[in-house]
Amino acid sequence: MGRSVIKKRHNQDARAGAAPYSSTKHALNNLSLVARAEFAPLGIVINLGHSGMTATNFGYNSMHG
């Protein structure tokens, strides 16, 4: 049957200013776990991929606009 892969990196940092990013990551993680349970009876497998870090200016840009 069908497969869906949702990639994320596990992160539990509690840093000032990171609430929007951290809460969105947590929501995606839980959404994928619920989807896994709900779609399993249909033969659809939901996997979580934990990717590594990438070199970007994302952190700096999110804090300094």
Mean pLDDT across all amino acids: 79
The succession of helices and strands, N to C, reads EHEH
Shape: elongated
Count, helices = 2
Largest sheet: 2 strands, parallel
Assess the beta-strand content as a share of residues: 15-25%
**What count of structural domains?**
1
Model regions low in confidence, pLDDT < 50 over at least 5 residues: none
Please give the oligomerization state of what you see.
single chain
Q: How far is the first residue's CA from the last residue's CA?
A: 43 Å
Structural class: alpha+beta
Query: What helical percentage do the residues reach?
Result: 40-55%
Strand order of the largest sheet: 1-2
- The tally of beta strands, per DSSP, is 2
Radius of gyration over C-alpha positions, nearest whole angstrom: 15 Å
Description:
With 65 residues, the protein is of the alpha+beta class. The protein has one domain. It has helices at residues 19-39, 58-64; strands spanning 3-8, 45-50. It has a two-stranded parallel ribbon with strand order 1-2. β1 (3-8), α1 and β2 (45-50) form a beta-alpha-beta unit. The relative contact order is 0.28. Residues 1-10 have a biased composition (Basic residues).
